[in-house]
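Ticket #4471: complex job returned nothing on first submit. Input attached below:
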Amino acid sequence: MSTNEPALVIEELRKSFGKLEVLRGIDLELAEHEVVCLIGASGSGKSTLLRCINLLEWIDAGRIILRGEDITTSGVDVNRVRRGIGIVFQAFNLFPHMSVLENITLGPRKALRLAKPEAEARATELLDRFGLADKRGEYPDRLSGGQQQRVAIVRALAMQPGLLLLDEVTSALDPELVAEVLEVIRELAAEGMTMLIATHEMSFARDVAHRVCFLDEGVILEQGTPAQIFGVPHEPRTQQFLQRIVDAGRL
Amino acid sequence: MGRSPGWEEVKQAFLSRDQLEKSFPDILAAFWTNVKIFLVAEVFILVLALGIAILRSLPGPVFFPLRALAVVYIDLFRGIPTILVIYILGFGVPALQLSGVPTDPIFWGTVSLVLVYSAYVSEVYRAGIESVHPSQSAAARSLGLTYGQTLRFVVVPQAVRRVIPPLLNDFIGLQKDTALVALLGVVEAFRQSQIEVSATFNYTPYLATAVLFVLLTIPLARFTDWLVARDKRRHLAGGLR
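Support reply: We reran it on our side without changes. The output follows.
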């Protein structure tokens, strides 16, 4: 593998739900170790795009190429592909009947077939690193939202994915809990994790992203460095969107 | 009630201590047959019903035949009165005189109960499976778990916890319906009390049988309550209850 081969290439991706076409031809490339933020109004297709990449939704047209392999051709082993892509959801989606440790070791044990001690060692190490060591025996419902979301991130990381997808991971959190989750993501970015992040946290996107893409009505209308997008957006729709964010006091 | 004109006679006919003492040992011994039928049937029902529920919730057009099979099964065995299933299997199958096929009425009575109750219980399971939010499956599948692993480790454990109370309903129903196996000539508690009654024209044995059934139900109900409460304690934060 050459070092400048992109981690992820998306070509002409289309996806409809019934008559509603949510993604109308998405083209996007992610380099290794690149952090790309997707911004845009609710319903612009950010979540759907992430779910398509993780093969949680079937695409209608186009291709998704992960490290040189087309993962959208028929006959591809979806379970194998998903093992290499982590996704963290807005609503955490932790398993409520399992302890924190069980939540994190489920994937490594059942999908990667790691032995229990090995999976637990890996989970414990990650929990330590993210300040959750004392929560390993707790059940999710006993944790704060911020802690739950950090556990969800750890659960994804325990699979040692080559690509991490974050789907508005702070949108369901109380404002005072947002920072602890963003801190974790910042740390991952600093380590060089390749990430595609759908977010409403504009100042976070400005800090952490190498590139920002503005999604509007199912297409990437404009993309560039955070300085370009937040400083001198070209498209009227982008300007309008950012103006609304500024008016709401969120940038 | 004590002042009603017929009270003395009813007391004689239904609450005779004498009769109770005479008939109780035999009824209790026969009741063991009910308990055995119940316990064996219950194990098979829990497994078979889960299988049917899983078949019925398989996704995609490929599995249409299996889904259809599950639906037909449920419609059939929920639709036919239990008593008829017991008659048809209990008298019909042994009459075929096939070699190697059991003719024991207890066997066919139990099979009938398993078939009927699996149809009911599978729908209870299915309700539980469908109540688990799709985002749970999505989270499991996103980790690379297969459909089967997702069911086994994520969906079914949550589904079962949610349907424990309605499952108990069906099991109490099953306990009581073990008396229907008497129709095949099996001497269980109900049949035994009938025998006693027809010999003496005293109805006390019926009451004794009724009490036995209730006594069997109560511990099971309390056990279920305890199970549900323990689960809540474990998963929910202290203040929420």
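Chain A touches chain B through 28 residues (CB under 8 Å). Closing as resolved unless it happens again.
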